[in-house]
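Weekly structure sync, notes
Attendees: PL (lead), two postdocs, one rotation student
Agenda item 3: pending single-chain targets
PL asked that the sequence for the first pending target be pasted directly into the notes so everyone works from the same version. It is reproduced below exactly as submitted, 119 residues in total.
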Amino acid sequence: MKKLFVGLAALLLAVITSACGIKSDLIDMSSRIVDTGVTEVRAVVWEDRVYVPFCVVSKSDCGGQIGYVDGDEDDRVSEYKGYPVEEWLVSWIPTDGGAMLMKEESVTEIPDGLEAEYQ
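Predicted structure, written out during the meeting:
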């Protein structure tokens, strides 16, 4: 009986989150302003990693959505072309619909064909 109750409760929770449009598998990341020495930029913070703007990329190079920033589900974060998410993320720009490639601060190896637009 207890297993049946737990199963029904889990099913009910899944139905409620699905009906409300809540994506429980997405990560709520945060943001903060980082001084690069040249300018201040908005960085994405995920656990102990800080991602800073690198360059604008095409949305066609973006992988699946993995999260959002500061509780705003329109401020989406995606994978980039199969590169490890520990090093590269894409932050979708809600105001103009563009996509900004974000580099984890400690990354030194840059994928071929990319050039930094931000210092």
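Discussion points:
- The CA atoms of residues 83 and 106 lie 15 Å apart.
- Residues 25-119 form one domain.
Action: rotation student to compare against the earlier draft before next sync.
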